[in-house]
Structure formats: C-alpha cells, structure tokens
Amino acid sequence: MKKQIAVFASGNGSNAENLITYFNNSKIAQVGLVLTNNPDAGVIQRAKRLNVPVCVFSKKELQNSTKVEEALKSHQIDWIVLAGFLLLFPQKIIQSFPNKIINIHPALLPKYGGKGMYGMRVHKTVAENKETETGITIHFVNENYDEGKIIFQSKTDVKRNDTPEDIAAKIHQLEYKWFPKVIEEQIKIEGFQ
Where is the Formyl transferase N-terminal domain (predicted)? Predict the structure, then answer.
C-alpha cells in the first residue's frame, strides 16, 4: 500500500505540482492531499488539474481548530511535506508526525533562514550580500522556522552579475531535481526501520 503524502503550500505551487507528478510514478508513495492557507493560491488549480483533493484553511483554523488534523486523518496521511508553506507549523501536528514532516528552504541553512525569509526575499538577500554560492536545504520540521534537523543540501554557484531572478531560477532547478528524491528516500528509510 502506497504511503500517503500531504503537501502544504501557500503560493504558486510549482514544487507541489512537481511532487504530485513525481509520485504519480512511484511505487511507494503518492500525494493524497494538498493543503493551503491561501484561498487564492495557484497551488489549488494545479492540484485540481492533477486530481488531488484540496483543503483550504485559515491561519486561525490551523492553530485553534481540528480542521487540518481531521483532513489529514480522513485522507490517511503518513507524511507531510511543506513546499512554500509560510506559516509556522503547529506543535500539535508536529507531535503527531514525528520525523515525518519535511520542508524545503531556498538557501543553505543556517544562512538566510527564519521568520520572513522565503522566496524572493532570500534570493535578494543572497545577491545583496554578494554570496558566491547558495542552494537548497531539505530538513525535518520542528517548532521553529528552518531549525529542524538537516537531511540534505545542494549548492549552486552565484555569479557576480546574477539577479535575484537568476538565483531563483537556479534554486528552482535544484528543488525540482532533489526534493522528490529526498522525500522518497526518507520514506524508504522509514520502511526499513
């Protein structure tokens, strides 16, 4: 029986779509639910087009109700993946999924992490600081932004004349290549324990 993955996203959803497509061809897991706190998020249309159920919730519902937990339970979710999800993840869900919540961050943590550091904000800061490399960090989620145990990092060069948009394009390529593979590897590891 395939493990069920829930993907949380707040925005466009290109990583979520990549994960759905990748796991459609997997023997061990599939994306069974997409959740978002943004009723206008692009990820909603992407998920619907790919026939994946969607749950939309408010920040208040995430923190103070059981709506999200009930959605996870009703879809028999085994793993949670954050793909551009901007809210702090609630402790009650982290405790229910120990070492089964994975996030991707568009920088080499611990650099450029924490509250407010996401998307183009990260890439602009990397460019402004004249970094010579950046990359992605895939990590487990804990109660603090971007502080969970690191699972995997991949680097890319930053050229002197790279714009934040150039950096974003390089990061997206790393995300699309590595995120699904690292998730799949973690699910396999868990299966052997």
Answer: 3-183
Rounded to whole angstroms, the Cα distance separating 87 from 69 reads 16
Binding site, residues?
Answer: 13-15, 60, 103
Shortest CA distance to 90 belongs to which of 42, 17, 138, 37? 37
Q: What is the domain count for the chain?
A: 1
Range of the domain at 147: 3-192
Distance CA 71, CA 4 (A): 12
The DSSP call for residue 147 is: -
Binding-site annotation, residues for (6R)-10-formyltetrahydrofolate: 60, 103
Q: What is the CATH number of the domain that holds 44?
A: 3.40.50.170
Report the alpha-carbon distance of residue 104 to residue 121 in Å, rounded: 15
Catalytic residue among 75, 105, 139, 172, which?
Answer: 105
Residue 191 has pLDDT above 80, yes or no: no
The β-bridge partners of 101 are: 80
Question: Please, what sign has the CA dihedral across residues 191, 48, 89, 118?
Answer: positive
105 catalytic per annotation: yes
pLDDT number for residue 156: 98
What's the confidence (pLDDT) of residue 193?
55
